[in-house]
């Protein structure tokens, strides 16, 4: 678009889960609802949803020019020619003939190709469907596009908990709001198919909008210990905010960034070691798992592990910065460190938040074991690797799940529906 050309006006309508309903633009092609301006707007919205734009990064809101009436008239999409402006066919001029004389048909003469029949088109569509790829073309072909519908949409997933909020609930008394919470809590259930679909949809984790949406309002494995230790009658407001608004209250320190930066290296090192002693080992990405019976619990393990000899398990990797320049064993006597020396063996402390996290992972996924890994290295070079296999501990988990349920019903639901705690803290 030239600098002096008037900007077009674009609008799009989308559902709350991100599914596009329709769009429109006042350019000549906008009547077909699929012009490049609409597409660019959708890309911008998707990117903006993952970022918070400051007011200084936006165009000036106080010196806007006066609006002018649109000068571009709409045209039928079928009558618009999208070829190059200087293409000879636009003005019906015959193609230039070669300067030298030649016998036989001209090389520049184009022959009219017959249109493919319905049978030929169907055969072609079947061939590309069976090619093993997933071509975008078939998403536009009736009869082939069912598999392109996002599973979250196709299965009619329950809405994210963050959508339970209603402005009118903020005016309710504690008793009335609690009753509303009980009504809503009775409807928070997921089928096995929905749980599986959500996990596959959110395997990009922090790069997935859906991952953030469905984590909001749920007690995740990383918050599990803090959640079961807080007093439901006087809960930690910072914990409530972190659970209900994870995108706004992201926790990031030098130590956590260090661990995230080296996570892929640690997983590769784990896989390299385990392949030597396990049959047909696979390590794949994991999405967000919601507990099938207790949908207020969720977990996002680092990876899903499967092998012929041990079955289905999980992987949780830690790269603590405190062992960056010293051995893992040398930190075992430190009170804050996750490992301790027990019976001459390094083991994860059962009082540590990581043990609570691993047990929550196992409960939400239903898998047999979790390999807990502590990695130490420099750059992409592994110096030391601690691998510990942890199994579900039902006796440990049961009372803690009960405490988490109490916190969810008495506190988190109040915040989700009526912002009970954040409004109260703001008033004080």
UniProtKB/TrEMBL annotation:
Transmembrane segments: none annotated. Keywords: Metal-binding, Zinc, Zinc-finger. GO terms for molecular function: zinc ion binding. GO terms for biological process: DNA repair. Residues 55-114 are annotated as: Disordered. Residues 10-46 form the SWIM-type domain. Residues 55-64, 103-114 have a biased composition (Polar residues). The keyword ATP-binding does not apply. InterPro entries: PDDEXK-like_dom_sf, Restrct_endonuc-II-like, YqaJ_viral_recombinase, Znf_SWIM. This is Hypp8734 protein. It comes from Branchiostoma lanceolatum (Common lancelet). The gene is Hypp8734.
């Amino acid at each position: 678009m030239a600098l002096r050309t008037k900007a077009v006006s674009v609008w799009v309508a989308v559902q709350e889960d991100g599914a596009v309903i329709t769009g429109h633009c006042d350019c000549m092609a906008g009547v077909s609802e699929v012009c490049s301006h609409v597409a660019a707007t959708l890309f911008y919205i998707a990117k903006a949803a993952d970022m918070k734009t400051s007011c200084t990064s936006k165009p000036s809101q106080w010196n806007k020019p006066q609006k002018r009436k649109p000068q571009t008239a709409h045209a039928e999409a079928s009558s618009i020619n999208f070829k190059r402006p200087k293409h000879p066919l636009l003005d019906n001029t015959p193609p230039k003939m070669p300067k030298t004389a030649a016998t036989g048909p001209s090389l520049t003469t184009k022959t009219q190709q017959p249109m493919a029949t319905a049978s030929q088109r169907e055969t072609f569509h079947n061939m590309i469907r069976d090619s093993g790829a997933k071509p975008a073309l078939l998403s536009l072909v009736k009869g082939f596009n069912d598999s392109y519908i996002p599973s979250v949409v196709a299965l009619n997933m329950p809405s994210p908990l963050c959508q339970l909020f209603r402005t009118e609930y903020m005016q309710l008394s504690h008793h009335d709001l609690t009753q509303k919470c009980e009504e809503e809590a009775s409807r928070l259930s997921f089928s096995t198919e929905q749980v599986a679909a959500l996990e596959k949809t959110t395997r990009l984790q922090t790069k997935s909008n859906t991952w953030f949406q469905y984590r909001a309002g749920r007690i995740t494995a990383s918050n599990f210990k803090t959640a079961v230790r807080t007093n439901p009658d006087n809960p930690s407001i910072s914990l409530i905010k972190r659970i209900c608004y994870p995108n706004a209250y992201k926790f990031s320190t030098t130590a956590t960034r260090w661990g995230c930066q080296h996570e892929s290296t640690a997983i590769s090192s784990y896989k390299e070691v385990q392949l030597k002693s396990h049959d047909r080992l696979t390590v794949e990405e994991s999405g967000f798992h919601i507990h099938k019976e207790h949908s207020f619990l969720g977990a996002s393990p680092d990876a899903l592990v499967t092998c012929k000899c041990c079955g289905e398990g999980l992987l949780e990797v830690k790269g603590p910065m405190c062992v960056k320049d010293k051995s893992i064993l040398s930190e075992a006597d430190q009170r804050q460190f996750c490992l301790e020396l027990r019976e001459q063996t390094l083991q994860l402390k059962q009082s540590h938040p990581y043990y609570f996290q691993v047990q929550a992972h196992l409960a939400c996924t239903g898998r047999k074991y979790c390999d807990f890994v502590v990695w130490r290295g420099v750059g992409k070079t592994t110096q030391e690797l601690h691998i510990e296999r942890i199994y579900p501990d039902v006796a440990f988990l049961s009372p803690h799940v009960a405490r988490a349920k109490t916190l969810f019903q008495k506190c988190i639901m109040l915040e989700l529906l009526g912002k009970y705690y954040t409004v109260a803290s703001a008033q004080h």
